[in-house]
Specification:
Elements: E1 2-8, E2 17-22, E3 31-38, H1 46-59, E4 62-68, E5 82-95, E6 102-106, E7 110-113, E8 119-135, H2 150-159
Antiparallel strand pairs: 1-2, 2-3, 3-7, 4-8, 5-6, 5-7, 5-8
């Protein structure tokens, strides 16, 4: 199901970026744009880390922020992209559906999830917590890949625009990786 997984080290000061290109998984549409993991983006932890993420995301137009963990079941959003910034602990997540890749996320990492890409938490440790947000504060729907959702979700995912800015790196971020 995974089409490719690449680690890219940009020539500027940005950290290494893990790029996950995910093919449709029958029940899960996924997206032609890849999921991105930015490693070690920030050093603050706990409340200071959460505040840093909330401010950085909001400064780049990703709002409606929340603090929590990640659901332990496959889910995705057909109407918006999502960003998750880990500010405490660590977790093993799975992307793209039942046969998708497993990704370790730890405090200091940021995961950018395109609309349609399933994600779930497999396990966590050390009080894993994230700040989540959405471009332009969009209100996310909740999809789980039900057969009855398939036709409408695929059409909805295709209509979600690429955000004006990357949640961490601003105007120069996402357009390097997304079309």
């Amino acid at each position: 199901m995974l089409r490719s997984h690449v680690v890219e080290k940009p020539t500027d000061s940005r950290p290494a970026t893990e790029i996950f290109r995910l093919a449709p998984d029958g029940a899960i549409p996924n997206n032609t744009n890849p999921a991105l993991v930015y490693r070690g983006v920030f050093s603050q932890r706990d409340d200071a880390g959460a505040q840093w993420l909330e401010k950085r995301f909001a400064d780049n137009g990703w709002t409606d922020a929340w603090r929590w963990s990640v659901y332990p079941f496959h889910h995705f959003h057909s109407n918006t992209h999502e960003v998750l910034g880990a500010f405490a602990g660590k977790a093993l997540l799975q992307l793209g559906g039942e046969h998708g890749p497993e990704v370790n996320l730890r405090a200091g990492d940021v995961l950018v999830i395109p609309a349609g890409v399933a994600h779930r938490k497999l396990r966590e440790a050390d009080g894993f917590q994230v700040v989540g947000a959405y471009p332009e504060g969009r209100e996310p729907d909740m999809r789980t890949g039900l057969e009855s959702e398939r036709e409408t979700t695929e059409k909805a995912v295709a209509k979600v625009p690429v955000p004006a800015a990357d949640p961490v790196f601003g105007a120069d971020g996402l357009r390097v990786f997304w079309r």
